[in-house]
Design a protein that fits this description.
seven-stranded mixed beta sheet; binds NADP nicotinamide-adenine-dinucleotide phosphate
Length: 341
């Protein structure tokens, strides 16, 4: 009889409660070039919930085991994989991107390049936050800079604005920027609640820019001595775009990985052009191989150097995966939501 494993899945799009099922599925076996990972923690990102809800289009496969992020231990290897990888602790990326079987299960078989060694000082819960949040944060800080500078050295002495301090991605952006020697301005609905950002050394905490744009611009000018910030990292481009020409230093970068509240913002082109500003959009699932490779290397470097703990909002057993998705969709989570198979 085929060996079975615990798993969660959906076969149609819709609300979490209506679509997510749990039970058993056949345990996968690693194909050539793959590793079999016993999952210890599975990360639930907004994109997992959006795909399940139907917001990203129709079902790509008849049955989907959700979640792209996860961490665990390699228990078996396919042909061509070095035997030394057996028993390795790993974190995963793109585990459910263009593939039906993600990390919301006891096991996953995945190409070995998508299973990255997890530094010894990190728990599996940390590892399950790296594939999307940490990778997106790193790329947003790294993209479009002098390629001669590595490991975010270009940020030393710069001021970086990271919007949404309590966000899963922003949390790592603040941590990496501080570890790289930057000053960090960050924002929250209620700055008094951004404890993790304070602990990581964020230098200035403000309300989101769209609450009072004039006041925000003034505070940034005061903090930077009129120079402006060298980089903006944001998941809400539309909430900040109008004032970016006023708060950016010349020849600086806006790195945007979302614009959820204003999906089609108006671009103040000439004011940005007069600043030689660059606007970079980031889609972490489809990023170029060399950019991803730099991020994987840089994440390990800064997680070890900077001692950046994961910001975990909640951990749910696999049987309660629907509640985990609802928490992600609530709009009030702080950091990452995890599921343990
Ligand atoms: N393009 C990509 O590759 C990529 C990768 C990862 C994530 N994303 C997307 O990025 C978004 C954030 O992901 P996440 O996991 O970090 O989500 P999250 O943990 O839910 O964080 C969302 C953040 O947005 C902040 N926010 C709310 N209103 C804002 C405003 N007016 N201005 C600035 N920030 C505001 C929230 O701050 P308060 O809680 O303080 O209000 C919160 O910190 C999601 O839409 C996700 O799908 C895209």
């Amino acid at each position: 009889m085929t060996e079975q494993m615990k798993a969660a899945w959906y076969t149609r799009t819709g609300s979490a409660a209506e679509t997510l099922e749990t039970g058993t599925l056949p345990k996968p076996s690693p194909q050539p070039g793959e590793v079999l990972v016993r999952i210890h923690a599975s990360g639930v990102n907004p994109s997992d919930a959006k795909k399940r809800s139907g917001a990203r289009g129709a079902m790509q496969f008849e049955q989907i085991v959700p979640h792209s992020d996860g961490a665990g231990i390699i228990e078996a290897i396919g042909k061509g994989v070095a035997p030394g990888r057996l028993s390795e602790r790993v974190w995963l990326w793109n585990a459910q991107w263009n593939r039906p079987l993600g990390t919301a299960a006891e096991y996953i078989a995945i190409p070995e390049s998508q299973a990255v060694p997890l530094p010894d000082n990190l728990a599996f819960e940390d590892g399950a936050c790296l594939g999307i949040p940490a990778m997106t944060a790193y790329i947003a800080l790294d993209i479009n800079h002098d390629p001669a500078l590595d490991l975010l050295e270009h940020l030393r002495g710069q001021t970086v604005l990271v919007t949404g301090a309590n966000g899963a991605v922003a949390h790592y952006a603040i941590g990496f920027a501080k570890s790289a020697g930057a000053k960090v301005i960050t924002t929250a609905t209620n700055p008094d609640t951004a404890d993790a950002a304070k602990q990581m050394g964020a230098d200035l905490l403000l309300e989101h820019a769209d609450v009072d744009p004039d006041r925000f611009t003034k505070r940034v000018a005061e903090f930077t001595g009129g120079k402006g910030v060298g980089r903006i990292v944001t998941s809400e481009l539309g909430s900040i775009l109008a004032i970016t020409p006023d708060i950016l230093a010349p020849a600086s970068t806006i790195a945007a990985y979302g614009s959820e509240k204003t999906p089609a913002p108006t671009l103040p082109f000439y004011p940005l052009m007069f600043k030689n500003a660059s606007l970079e959009s980031i889609f972490v699932y489809e990023i170029a191989d060399e950019i991803r490779a730099r991020a994987i290397r840089g994440i390990a470097h800064h997680l070890v150097k900077g001692g950046i703990p994961a910001l975990i909002d909640g951990i749910f057993p696999l049987d309660e995966i629907a509640a985990a998705h609802e928490r992600v969709e609530s709009g009030s989570k702080r950091g990452m939501v995890l599921v343990t198979p």
